[in-house]
Amino acid sequence: MRLFDSHSHIDDRAFDNDRDAVLARAHEAGVLGVMLVGITQKTCMRALEIAAATSGLFVSLGVHPHDCKSCSEKIMQSLVSLAGRPKVKAWGETGLDFDRMFSPQKDQERWFVRQLEIAAELGLPVILHERSTKGRFLEMLKAHLPPQGCVVHCFSGSKKELSSYLDMGCFIGITGIVTNKTRGEELRRQVRSIPANRLLVETDAPYLVPSPERNKFRRNEPAFVKSTFLELAHLRGDEPAKLAEQTFQNTLLLYGIDETEVAAPGAP
Ligand SMILES: [Zn+2]
Ligand SMILES: [Zn+2]
Q: Which residue from 41, 113, 137, 209 puts its CA 20 to 30 A from 182's CA?
């Protein structure tokens, strides 16, 4: 069984002391591809450095809604100048987050639209972040739908939102929340209605440790995407080997990654 962690932040400082061991454990668990998702100019640079040296690691460039208050066109242009690097496969994460409002709504909306324009110009798929936007995100996404495809990462929306995303052709990213009986209750009910060819799995590491690991670890890591995946297959009543290959291929398709760019099983 091979898996792809379609959304992680292993460039985070939380991994500075043991990143190589983390990647080795991912490989042992069959996680052969990992997308490193940028949230600021600094984290994008760090992700590029890390991914350049290791096969199976890829990078998405972008500024997170939380960080939009300090975004500028200069920052955008410096990210655009990095987009031609071979490991860059996506733009984001971008979107709207009205849950904690770390950036004012007007800044979030301005840079969300700008980043969708940039991704379309560059021909990159988009990694989308949405939280508590009560329809505003959906409205803006509809008006600027990424031509190269997109994933609504860490999906936690309503049934209605899910069907709108599916109608628009979005992929749906499932995190460890699906392993949580209480917090994931709503999501656990919805995963059966997502077509298999639209599903991605992700950790969002170092955040959102899946339930099976939560007693032992405070930090999430790509190897743990297996727990999320197995719970997803269980809830859907799917055969794990078949669903694993499907979600793996979905990830390659969305990000435009060739099989040969992914680490071979058993490779160091
Ligand atoms: Zn996010
Ligand atoms: Zn993230």
A: 137
Q: Does residue 265 lie within any of the structural domains?
A: no
Q: Which residue has the tokens 């995963």?
A: 191
Dist. CA 217 → ligand 2 center (Å): 19
CATH code: domain of residue 205:
3.20.20.140
Closest listed residue to residue 199, CA positions, set 249, 237, 125: 249
Sign, CA torsion 203/131/254/41: negative
Which listed ligand is nearest to 36 at the C-alpha? 2
- Span from the CA of 267 to the centroid of ligand 1 (angstroms): 30
Instruction: Decide if 168 is inside a domain.
Output: yes
132-163 CB burial, b ≥16 within 10 A, e <16: ebeebbbebbeebebebbbbbbbbbbeeebbe
Q: Ligand 1 mean position to 261 CA, how many Å?
A: 25
Tally of domains in the chain: 1
Q: Among the bound ligands, name the one nearest to the CA of residue 6.
A: 2
Q: Rounded to whole angstroms, how far apart are CA atoms 180 and 6?
A: 20
Residue 267 lies in a domain: no
- How close is the Cα of 129 to the center of ligand 1, in Å? 5
Among all ligands shown, which has an atom nearest to the Cα of 9?
2
Give residue 29's domain range. 3-258
pLDDT tens digits for range 153-211: 999 999 999 999 999 999 999 999 999 999 999 999 999 999 999 999 999 999 999 99
